[in-house]
Amino acid sequence: MFKKHRDRRTTARRHAIAMAAARAAQAKAVIHGDGTATTDDVVNLAYGSHAIRLTDDEARDALAAELATVGRRLETSA
Question: Positive or negative, the Cα torsion across 34, 38, 42, 45?
């Protein structure tokens, strides 16, 4: 019972950190004229700010969600 509750809290915290890192990465990219942040930017900001290692999938999902809030899409490399 307690493990399930702890896991839910941990997941919610990781999600909040990923979204905050994606928002900050995109804001920095726009301010500096780089266009769009990368998943590496999100991973680096999350680690630098919160000492948490996000996976590339978590970073990509958070960045895609952040870009979707302003009507943009995450470009995928083919």
Answer: negative
Angle at 53 between CA 52 and CA 57, to 5 degrees: 130
pTM (2 decimals)? 0.83
What lies within 8 Å, CB to CB, of 29 at 6+ separation is 35, 36, 37, 41
Tell me the CA end-to-end span of the chain in Å, nearest whole number.
Answer: 44
The answer to whether 24 and 11 are in contact (CB under 8 A) is: no
Alpha-carbon distances, residue 70 vs 52, 54, 63, 74 (angstroms): 26, 23, 11, 11
Average pLDDT over residues 57-69: 93
| Residue 5 DSSP class | H
DSSP state, 71?
T
**What letter does residue 36 receive in the DSSP assignment?**
S
